[in-house]
């Protein structure tokens, strides 16, 4: 019988790294403002890393006083320490690292050719740190484009941005996107944008590259030649036949002088002549998300998978717009139905599970809660599945905080002359809401304003299992 004592082996090697007994490698990690001397053992580095094996065999390292000396100014000391601990012990912990550090660690392990960590860190980012994509999609795209080994992260980023294009296409940095990356998006069938938006985004990008204004009447012949050349390889990627006649006339035909003449003629014929078919083989329309209809003045499509994930107590990125197991049916809109408790109960009682969302007056902040029961009746109701949420910036779901009920017997309160009431947080009078200090015993403090505050509007959605 073979006994394996892997943990003891791992601990012993990590202890060797920490005590530095018999080290023969000196690594200077970090730049001039933050350099740390780290000691290691060449036999272990060669055994565990192709990079170091090559470095020692090719003489990359200088040998001084019997010790190999490396300088890695482009890898921060604390990240190099993490990498070496993994080389020695096989252990790594990522949860305490900030997002930029995880990305820099991924770049470092790619340079050092540590394949296990390249795959592991990508998987960790995809599963646990998707907020980084919303915070800085441009930066992550640039990173994955520059590193061929980041295929999993690249595919994930492309898919997520195609599901919610505004996180990139509405960004100020969109115009700085490299041409090959833009081309990747325009080739995708799952880019969730109307085709006229795709065309306008491309035009915006092109004009920014050439530092030109968006007024074709002010372009001279040289201007048109420059933009034609830049647009040339992108034109076949725009599905012009999926642009409606009105948008075509006002937003495409205006640029007829920089588009291929045969394309303009064919499109004119297509829109003017009844039942005319395209004369060329055209790609199919970009796939739309057919299973998600959202009727709301407050939330956006990217909020729905987030709410669905919370309802099922999953990680925030568990669901996406393609696999949401619920329909969200708008029951009540305070602007439409009247900002009073009577209208709320008329529309929402006896409808089962609901989620409500309110926009705080004078801000982009969204607050809300999930009631898995109903709003009819009188008094407190027991549930372990309700929650409150606070999205500090409603346009950025990475700013969301979530709090599940702590005191189930006071989770939901129902009363005919009040709107949504959870714990001791409730709609008091019309658009005036109050978050009583006692609510801290029922739900965690997630940054919802305390005491009295006002909201601009709130909506209630019925949650229907598909």
TrEMBL record:
Domain TLDc: 297-464
A Pfam family reported for this protein in Swiss-Prot or TrEMBL: TLD
CDD domains: BTB_POZ_ZBTB_KLHL-like
Domain BTB, residue spans: 23-96
Record's protein name: Btb/poz domain-containing protein 19-like
Organism: Rhizophagus irregularis (strain DAOM 197198w) (Glomus intraradices)
Lineage: Eukaryota, Fungi, Fungi incertae sedis, Mucoromycota, Glomeromycotina
């Amino acid at each position: 019988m073979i006994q394996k004592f892997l943990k003891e082996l791992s601990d012993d090697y990590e202890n060797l790294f920490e005590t530095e007994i018999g080290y023969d490698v000196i690594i200077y990690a970090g730049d001039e403002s933050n350099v740390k001397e780290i000691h290691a053992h060449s036999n272990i580095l060669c055994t565990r890393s192709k990079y170091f094996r090559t470095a020692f065999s090719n003489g990359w390292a200088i040998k001084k006083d019997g010790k190999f000396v490396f300088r890695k100014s482009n890898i921060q000391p604390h990240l190099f320490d993490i990498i070496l601990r993994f080389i020695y012990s096989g252990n790594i912990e990522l949860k305490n690292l900030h997002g930029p550090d995880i990305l820099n660690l991924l770049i470092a392990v790619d340079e050092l050719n540590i394949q296990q960590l390249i795959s592991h860190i990508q998987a960790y980012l995809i599963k646990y740190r998707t907020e980084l994509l919303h915070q800085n999609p441009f930066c992550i795209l640039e990173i994955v484009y520059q590193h061929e080994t980041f295929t999993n992260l690249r595919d994930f980023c492309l898919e997520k941005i195609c599901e919610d294009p505004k996180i990139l296409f509405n960004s100020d940095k969109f115009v700085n996107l490299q041409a090959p990356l833009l081309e990747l998006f325009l080739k995708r069938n799952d880019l969730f944008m109307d085709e006229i938006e795709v065309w306008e985004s491309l035009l915006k990008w092109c004009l920014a590259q050439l530092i030109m204004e968006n007024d074709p009447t002010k372009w001279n012949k040289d201007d048109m030649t420059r933009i034609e050349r830049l647009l040339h390889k992108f034109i076949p990627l725009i599905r012009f036949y999926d642009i409606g006649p009105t948008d075509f006339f006002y937003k495409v035909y205006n640029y007829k002088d920089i588009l291929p003449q045969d394309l303009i003629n064919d499109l004119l014929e297509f829109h003017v002549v009844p039942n005319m078919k395209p004369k060329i083989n055209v790609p199919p329309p970009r796939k739309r998300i057919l299973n998600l209809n959202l009727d709301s003045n407050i939330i956006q499509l990217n909020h729905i998978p987030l709410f669905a994930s919370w309802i099922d107590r999953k990680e925030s990125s568990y669901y996406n717009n393609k696999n949401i197991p619920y329909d969200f049916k708008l029951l009540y809109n305070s602007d439409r139905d009247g900002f009073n408790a009577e209208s709320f109960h008329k529309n929402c009682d006896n409808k089962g599970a609901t989620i409500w969302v309110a926009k705080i007056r004078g801000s982009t902040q969204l607050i809300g809660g999930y009631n898995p029961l109903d709003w009819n009746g009188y008094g407190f109701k027991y549930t372990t599945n309700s929650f409150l949420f606070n999205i500090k910036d409603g346009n950025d779901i990475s700013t969301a905080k979530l709090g599940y009920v702590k005191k189930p017997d006071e989770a939901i309160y129902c009363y005919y002359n009040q709107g949504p009431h959870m714990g001791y947080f409730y709609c008091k009078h019309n658009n005036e809401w109050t978050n009583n200090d006692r609510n801290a015993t029922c739900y965690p403090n997630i940054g919802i304003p305390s005491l009295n505050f006002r909201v601009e509007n709130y909506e209630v959605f019925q949650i229907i299992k598909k």
